[in-house]
Design brief:
This protein has helices at about 30-35, 55-65, 75-90, 130-140, 145-150, 170-175, 230-235, and strands spanning about 1-5, 5-10, 15-20, 45-50, 70-75, 95, 110-115, 155-165, 180-190, 195-205, 215, 220. With about 240 residues, the chain is of the alpha/beta class. The protein has one domain: Rossmann fold (3-Layer(aba) Sandwich), CATH 3.40.50.150. Strands 4, 5, 6, 7, 8, 9, 10, 11 and 12 form a 9-stranded mixed beta sheet that branches. It has a 3-stranded antiparallel beta sheet with strand order 1-2-3. Helix 1 (about 30-35) packs across helix 2 and helix 5 runs parallel beside helix 6. The radius of gyration is 17 Å and the shape is globular.
């Protein structure tokens, strides 16, 4: 990890991706890497990352397969950071600054093979963040249904939607998705064996008539706090989930 004033440059996927990020602001976690691994992208597919943060999801997908990335982000400092990270990794990312709840949509009419999102999802109750960047990035103070619906309207036919969230909101998420997607897969993320799922990844296909499935999921750590082989393959080696 290289450090500069108020910033670090961190390695992801065993150094395949380098990420410039704020010391005290938004910091990428395994959530983003797992979400990227769950996107079933093929070469030259188009990707829309909604609420892209510092751009890590798109970059991690691009480490696995060459894709065309569009990143949507509301915070100006993060918009600049996404472009810096694209340059740092010799990638091209189209960055759009917008509030997805505003009346005008600069992406209106644009459809993508895959729409992916890691939205803010901490409850506002008891969540104290040290700066406004962290608060906007981590704390859910918006309408989740509208966030999901925005994502869905930008998926092309037979394209996919992928998101990560808290397990306790799975019911709400499925109510929205099952009206529009098929082939929905729910992938639980377990911190350790025998523990409840910490996260869920939900993905589906626009226009599919396949049923919803609960997948086996992935366990990140053994009981002795060592990474599991499956976690290593995804988080370090960039394998798909």
């Amino acid at each position: 990890m290289a450090r500069m004033k108020n910033m670090t440059i961190d390695n992801f996927l065993n150094g395949k991706i380098k990420l410039r990020q704020s010391v005290k602001g938004l910091r990428a976690t395994s959530d983003a890497v797992l979400t990227a691994a769950a996107v079933k992208a093929k070469a030259n597919d188009t990707i829309l990352d909604v609420g892209a943060g510092n751009g890590v999801i798109g970059l991690c997908i691009s480490a696995r397969v060459p894709v065309q990335i569009t990143a949507l982000e509301i915070q100006e400092n993060l918009v600049q950071l996404i472009q810096q990270n694209a340059d740092l990794n010799d990638r091209k990312i189209t960055v759009v600054r917008m509030d997805l709840f505003q009346r005008t949509d600069p992406l209106k009419g644009h459809l993508f093979h895959h729409v992916v999102t890691n939205p803010p999802f901490y409850d506002t109750t008891g969540q104290q963040r040290s700066n406004s960047e962290q608060a906007k990035a981590y704390v859910a103070n918006f309408n989740l249904d509208k966030w999901i619906l925005y994502c869905l309207k930008h998926i092309r036919a037979k394209g996919t939607f992928t998101m990560i969230h808290r397990p306790e909101l799975l019911g709400q998420i499925l109510v929205v998705l099952e009206q529009r997607l098929g082939g929905i897969e729910i992938v639980p993320i377990y911190t350790k064996p025998g523990q409840p799922a910490k996260r869920i990844i939900v993905r589906g296909i626009l226009g599919s008539n396949k049923p919803t499935q609960l997948m086996s999921g992935i366990v990140l750590n053994t009981k002795s706090d060592k990474p599991t082989p499956s976690a290593k393959s995804v988080l370090r080696n960039g394998q798909s989930l």
